[in-house]
Amino acid sequence: MRTMTTPQAALGSPVGGRASCGMILTMSTDLLSAVVLSSIRHDDEELGMKQAVRVAEAQDIVLGCLQPVGIEKVALLEALHRVTAEEVTAPRHIPLEDNSAMDGYAVRHADVAAAARDHPAVLQVLEVLPAGRSPRHAILPGTAVKIMTGAPLPQGADTVVQVEHTDGSDAQVQIYRAPRLGSNLRRRGEDIRAGESVLAVQTPLRPAELGVLASLGKAQVLVYQRPRVAILATGDEIIDPGEPDTQGKILNSNSYSLAGQVAEAGGIPLLLGVAPDQREIMSQCIASGLRADVLITSGGVSVGTFDYVRECLDAFGFQARFWTVAVRPGSPATFGMVGQVPVFSLPGNPVASMVTFELFVRPALRKMTGQRELFRAYSEAILQDAVEKRQGVRTLLRGVLQQQDGQTTVSTTGPQGSGILRSMSLANCLIDLPEEMEHVQPGARVQVMLL
Ligand code: AMP
Ligand code: MG
Question: Cα-atom radius of gyration of the chain, to the nearest Å?
């Protein structure tokens, strides 16, 4: 028995608020009224879509359909891994004023230039200046201020002598060694100058940028919104972890790997649970999913007797942009729009689901979250295994990339069946073999996508 919240509730909350599509039937029938289940027709144009598109073309199609969802102001601590939607300029110099980079003595360089261990310079200490206080005295010839790191430089001082090169006195200090003129100072504006552009629009915020924003006094920053991404698993055989594990059932791994991928790509995953292979319930689940910014389904897009996803989507006015990609694993991957909502229908096999997410959904979510870099980084490596490959099909194998004797090598993770999810878990890269390539021999130079 599933005890879940409604999908409506799930759409208001992140992962954890999973909804059971099985419950929707009893809880809500209004969503169903929009669905005309009988009028399913695939016209000639749609049949043309069955032509497999190349991966690059499919990616262009997806990216051409999407825009960022919006922008919002968030507190600095919530901004990690978000992307700026404003240019940030410095309202003031950093540092705001000249200050000491050392614990020591603020001096006039001329007074200490000749200092040495056997004939120290002797200066009168005017005050002891902790960080966070303003100096009360200006430095005159023959005087010094004992200064702590970060304290503002007193007027008249041009150099700080570090305490290790003195006798450390608070009254009359002996200086044993002269640093170079201007040593041990942090100059006003040396880090960032007032008015300077510090972060461009569409800058990803890493820990360093959070620090920079904080140092500019910004408590909030304008960023791109995270799209809410509904994830719907399908299949009579699919059960969730924790449910009674009866014969013939398969555990739902896709919702969880996809949720992780969505979160890593910058989206907010909303798990809609598992829709059985029944048109009515599946349609209700899809209706719920279409309230999100993006809908991802997994399974039910092959040519099996009970593969109803496409049929149900059509009833919502689904405009397919492609429907089959020349890729392995994952050829039944489908993409289209229902109104303004992009819908990705990924294959059910766990590896195919993850790989097609990588290829199509991740770049899409990155575009929607304002990222400029939409694709993974690649590296070249020397293949260690022989690989069988069909010509005309882009093929992504799970690989382990490593440095061996000064060379970058890659081996496959072992069996590459699209149901063998462990191959993804063992992999740190995808070996990306282009369409034109045929069987590949050990020693071949290949491109790998770094995961
Ligand atoms: P389908 O495309 O629905 O025919 O599914 C293809 C294969 O993927 C079948 O073996 C399914 O059991 C498996 N599969 C489908 N959905 C999931 C899921 N959510 N988690 C794990 N395996 C799945
Ligand atoms: Mg299925």
Answer: 31
Counting ligands in written order, which one lies closest to the CA of residue 306?
A: 2
CB 362 within 8 A of CB 261: yes
How many whole angstroms from 49 Cα to the centroid of ligand 2? 21
Closest atom of ligand 1 to CA, residue 250: 12
pLDDT digits (tens, 9 = 90+) for 105-135: 999 999 999 999 999 999 999 999 999 999 9
Predicted confidence (pLDDT) per residue in 255-273, tens digit:
999 999 999 999 999 999 9
pLDDT at 302: 82
Dihedral sign, CA of 16, 22, 27, 32?
Answer: positive
What does the block give as tokens for 70? 């919006």
CB of 331 closer than 6 angstroms to any ligand 1 atom:
no
- Bridge partners of 201, per DSSP, are none
Ligand nearest to the backbone CA of 276? 2
The CB of 252 under 6 Å from ligand 1? The reply is yes
Q: Is the CB of 253 under 6 A from ligand 1?
A: yes
* Tokens (6 digits) for 392: 């005309």
